[in-house]
Amino acid sequence: MRRKICVRHEADYPCSCGMGNLYRFVEPVVLLLLLKKGRSCGYDLCANLEKHALTDAEIDKAALYRTLRQLEKNGNVKSTWETGQGGPARRVYRLTKDGERHLEAWAAVLEHLSKAMTRFVGDVRRHRRPTTSKRVSAA
Predict the structure, then answer these.
(1) Please, which pLDDT band fits residue 35 given cuts at 50, 70 and 90?
(2) How much is the average pLDDT of 3-11?
(3) Whole-number average pLDDT of the chain
(4) Sheet (strand 90-95) strand order
(5) Rounded to an integer, what distance in angstroms lies between the CA atom of residue 130 and that of residue 17?
(6) d(CA 17, CA 135)
(7) Cβ of 83: how many Cβ atoms within 10 Å?
(8) What is the CB-side half-sphere exposure of residue 54 using CA atoms within 13 A?
C-alpha cells in the first residue's frame, strides 16, 4: 500500500502525516509482530505489544483491535476465523504483501523521525543555558 501523499511534503519524503495511529505507534508494531510471527490472534498480539512498544504510552486493547480492523480494511492484513479444540473461535491475522510494503514505509518514516529527534535533542543540549551551582542558604 502506498503512503498517502501529504500536501506539505513530496511523494518520496518519509512523512508521517498519512501513516495512521502515530500517537502510540501501534500500527508499525502490529505489522512487525505479524511479520515475525507469520500469523497471530489479537490476544497473542496484545500480549507482545508492550514488549515491542515504541513509546511509554499504554496501548489499550481497543486501540489494537481498531488498528487491526483498519489494517485489514486497507489490505495490509487478512484475517480468518479459526476454530480450535476446546475453546471459542478466534480471529487469526496475517500480514499481506501490501502490509509488508506498508511496514517498509513505516520503517522509512520512523528512521526519518529518529534522525529528526536526534537533531532536536542535540540542539537542545548545545543551546541550554549553563546552570549555576550557587545555592541560597537559609538565614
Answers:
(1) very high
(2) 58
(3) 81
(4) 39-41, 90-95, 77-82
(5) 36
(6) 47
(7) 8
(8) 19
Is residue 98 a contact partner of residue 34, using CB atoms and an 8 Å limit? Answer: no
CA pair distance 124, 120, nearest whole angstrom: 6
11: amino acid identity, one letter: A
For residue range 82-131, what is the model confidence (pLDDT) as tens digits? 887 778 889 999 999 999 999 999 999 889 989 998 999 899 999 988 77
pTM of structure: 0.73
**Cβ neighbours of residue 112 closer than 8 Å, sequence gap 6 or more:** 14, 16
Contact 70, 20 (CB under 8 A): yes
The three grid cell numbers given for residue 102, joined into one nine-digit string: 506498508
Supply φ then ψ for residue 94, to 5 degrees.
Answer: -140, 155
Do 18 and 106 meet the contact criterion of CB atoms below 8 Å apart? no
> Could you give the CA distance from residue 88 to residue 39 in angstroms, rounded to a whole number?
18
The structural domains of the chain, ordered by start, are 1-111 (1.10.10.10)
Cell numbers 505489522: residue: 31
